[in-house]
Write a structure and sequence with these properties.
The structure is a single chain. By secondary structure, the protein is α+β, with helices and mostly antiparallel strands. It has a domain at 70-82 and 119-197: Ribonuclease H-like superfamily/Ribonuclease H (Nucleotidyltransferase, domain 5, 2-Layer Sandwich), CATH 3.30.420. Helix content is 28%, strand content 20%. It has five helices and ten strands; from the N terminus they run E-H-E-E-E-H-H-E-E-E-E-H-E-H-E. The chain has helices spanning 5-12, 53-66, 71-74, 143-162, 179-187; strands at residues 2-3, 29-31, 39-41, 44-45, 77-86, 119-127, 130-131, 135-137, 167-169, 191-192. The strands form three sheets. Strands 5, 6, 7, 8, 9 and 10 form a six-stranded mixed β-sheet that branches. GO terms for molecular function: nucleic acid binding.
């Protein structure tokens, strides 16, 4: 999927000089005053998670199953998620002007670290009427760290306060399905909410 600058400028209410984007959205090629009459391209690719028909069906089934839940039922669910923030630019969403056939020329490439270089991981959980403290760390989250820091220091406390009706939702990341994590959830009598995988 390709987004053009004209679409982004409309969405973000940004004034972009007209020569910087193509008037005909069928073609990203445009002549620029800075490059003479050479045909240049300015595009940004969008990354997304591809969903199969099975993914869509499972998500629809999950939605239908929970559509009639009461606020009381939802108040027992802790939703959790984590995000990783890179300290170096690694979004790969940099706009450049380049001529066709020059994609791999040195002036059109940007070096990037395989795992984005240094960064921070931030985790948090929310539940109706409350939330956990944000947990931030500068190292990669591994199963034993997730168990010790997240489950034992945050989730277990909410389970104790809520009782047996407590449900814990995570996003099915590989880390969340590690044996050490499953063992901890079982030993603490924490029920994981069924959540469709990506």
């Amino acid at each position: 999927m390709i987004f053009y600058v004209v679409e982004l400028s409309d969405d973000w209410n940004v004034d972009v000089p007209s020569w910087k984007y193509p008037r005909n959205l069928e073609s990203p090629r445009v002549s620029s005053p800075d490059f003479g009459n050479d045909s240049k391209m300015m595009v940004m690719s969008v990354r997304c998670v591809p969903l199969t028909a099975t993914h869509c069906r499972l998500r629809l089934d999950w939605s239908r199953e929970h559509a009639l839940w009461t606020p009381q039922q939802w108040s027992c669910v802790m939703f959790s998620d984590e995000s990783r923030f890179s300290l170096q630019s690694d979004s790969r969403r940099t706009f450049i002007w380049r001529a066709p056939g020059t994609r791999y020329h040195q002036e059109n490439t940007t070096e990037r670290h395989r795992y984005g270089g240094a960064g921070w991981l931030v985790w948090g959980g929310i539940i109706l009427g409350s939330r956990t403290d944000l947990h931030a760390q500068s190292v990669t989250m591994a199963g034993h760290i997730y168990r010790h820091v997240i489950l034992e220091q945050h989730v277990r406390l909410f389970r104790g306060a809520m009782g047996a009706e407590f449900l814990f939702m995570d996003d099915n990341a590989r880390l969340h399905r590690a044996n050490i994590v499953d063992e901890c959830l079982q030993s603490e009598d924490i029920t994981r909410m069924d959540w469709p995988a990506y």
